[in-house]
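Materials and Methods. Structural model of Cyclic nucleotide-binding domain-containing protein. The 193-residue sequence of Cyclic nucleotide-binding domain-containing protein from Flavobacterium pokkalii was retrieved and submitted for structure prediction as follows.
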Amino acid sequence: MPLIIDSIEKHVSLTPEEKELFASKLEIQQHKAKTILLSPGEICQYSYFVNSGVLRSFNINDNIVEHVLQFACKGWWIGDMYSLISQKPGNLFIEVLEDAELVLLSKENQEQLYTEIPKLERFFRILIENSLVAHQERLMDNLSLSAEERFDKFCKRYPDLMQKIPQKQIASYIGVTPEFFSKMKSRILKNKI
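The predicted structure was written out as tokens:
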């Protein structure tokens, strides 16, 4: 449990009793790579905190093209925020890319914790604000940066992922085809020599 507590205590301090109460509301699960935790049409019931492994959220459009919205590595949270907050069916897949240990916090338990440990509401507000800022920045990057610049930002944001996930998923995240990504990466590597 220390990683999730460390994550929280970057923003709010918890007493030993509050840490114990918080831990009592969590569920820990192990998942193998390629496990789908959530599919479109399902209502998201959990926020997932990554203790180890790598996850991604994505959707598939009508032309069967994947669009990666987010990767989540050790110490990151992931979920279908639209579905979790609205409690309506979502439109995202959440997939385990690398064997993972996850900490699950249900919507119901999160709401109870807001009442029992009010400072956690502040923590999750900060988390949601940071997520909103990151998603807005990504949207603006997609509108104004070249593919090379978006790839450079990806490498800085997720430095450990280059060897862990397929290139086609990185291409999807930065908004290019796998073929374009391959040519672009070759060109970048050639220019560094």
